[in-house]
Design a protein that fits this description.
alpha/beta, D-Maltodextrin-Binding Protein, domain 2, 3 domains, 21% strand, G10844 protein, SBP
């Protein structure tokens, strides 16, 4: 993109000056503009072919700069450090998991996405997702809040168990959270290191759900002692709490079942013939990765705010054609494929034959049944009384 220089000083976006020959034969010095989009993503969340596809589409309009970080924690920590030139705090968009969104908003590390509600991607986004990314300045869900993120993939917590080990020793199939309490699984479960999900699963065994508050539990007639007992009963079944060693424990036959995120368990199930993958029938926990805008994004006009190319990046991820491609749990499914929480969804891209109830078959290409997903929830921020209840039942505090 070129702009005549004349005698004016260089605009802040100008990268260089070069001579341009005009049709009348005269020469004019012009500033050459370099519009860039800088994205910092979670490693592995953007397939290589997707990266190349976007670069190709953008080639005539600007530069695309992609950096990756191995953990969401690394991105979150960088957001508070704008001094480093390549810091996530200066990028136009960064990956954040849904669990990190509220803390980042509360800490002032993000800015609302400019003009989000008038964008193409927002119009495509189902109501369930809109509600999730619309929050107040403290990070709480709020219909009157602002739009803080654009989701681009999601997955869920699954249970994987070794059929040969469990059933041949007198155990019964695992279909829901309560089945993890069977005697044959005592000390034979590995669990990802997430206290929030662990207590949520204990609540599920009591007929509650992952986002049940302290007030909800009391209203249901469940005492704190009842919940503490459910947590203790479930803890008795667990041998390993780890987000790194849980899958290895199943591979080594140290445990017979593992509870973890779909991105971790699907590759494991592909390698092991006797592993059954289950999305608990009463519902499970959902997770999502999203694009959020750092508070010091610097590729916009006058080197302030996000790049003018940001809307193209967000629209790219929510195109219907991408949903047809990004439809399995292995790499994270498209937000357009998640059914509403309370009503049936008509997803033309998923055939009737592939809607397996509970058991996740086909691995990379399949997702749990609509019934299970309608019963499943994203983990919402806990209010203070519920946080205190969690601490007491987990630690006796």
């Amino acid at each position: 993109m070129l702009l005549a220089a004349g005698g004016a000083s260089a605009p802040q976006h100008a990268q260089a000056v070069r001579a341009v020959q005009l049709p009348d034969g005269s020469t004019e010095m012009a500033y050459e503009f370099d519009i860039a989009l800088q994205v910092i993503a979670l490693r592995g969340s953007i397939p290589a072919d997707v990266n190349l596809e976007f670069r190709k589409a953008l080639s005539k309009y600007g530069q695309f700069r992609l950096s990756q970080r191995s953990q969401l924690k690394d991105i979150f920590e960088e957001l508070s450090n704008a001094r480093k030139k390549q810091s996530a705090a200066r990028a136009d968009a960064v990956t954040l998991g849904d669990a990190w969104l509220a803390p980042a908003i509360r800490a002032g590390l993000l800015q609302p996405i400019p003009d989000a509600q008038n964008s193409t991607w927002w119009k495509r986004l189902p109501p369930r997702w809109r509600a999730m990314v619309t929050r107040d300045s403290s990070g709480r869900l709020s219909r009157k809040g602002q739009v803080w993120a654009c989701p681009y993939r999601w997955g869920c917590t699954l249970i994987a168990y070794r059929k040969s080990a469990l059933l041949r020793r007198g155990g019964h199939p695992v279909e829901d959270w309560k089945d993890l309490l069977q005697p044959k699984l005592e000390g034979r479960i590995a669990w990802t290191d997430s206290p929030r999900e662990f207590v949520g699963a204990a609540l599920q065994t009591l007929g509650m759900h992952f986002n049940s508050t302290a007030a909800d539990v009391k209203a249901a007639g469940i005492s704190e002692a009842d919940l503490a007992e459910a947590v203790a009963r479930l803890r008795k079944q667990v041998r390993v709490f780890s987000s790194r060693e849980h899958t290895r424990a199943l591979s080594a036959s140290d445990v017979w079942a593992v509870v973890g995120w779909s991105g971790d368990l699907l590759p494991l199930a592909e390698r092991m013939n006797d592993v059954v993958l289950v999305a608990p029938s009463s519902g499970t926990a959902l997770w999502a990765d999203m694009w959020a805008v750092p508070w010091q994004a610097q590729n916009g006009s006058k080197m302030e705010g996000p790049s003018p190319l940001l809307p193209a990046w967000l629209d790219f991820w929510l195109q219907p054609s991408r949903a047809a491609w990004n439809r399995g749990l292995k790499s994270g499914a498209s937000p357009l494929l998640l059914p509403p929480q309370s009503t049936a969804s008509d997803r033309e891209n998923l055939s009737e034959d592939s809607r397996y109830p509970g058991i996740v078959e086909g691995f990379g290409d399949m997702i749990p049944s609509e019934t299970v997903l309608q019963r499943s929830q994203f983990l919402e921020p806990l209010d203070q009384p519920t946080q205190q209840l969690y601490n007491r039942v987990l630690h006796g505090a």
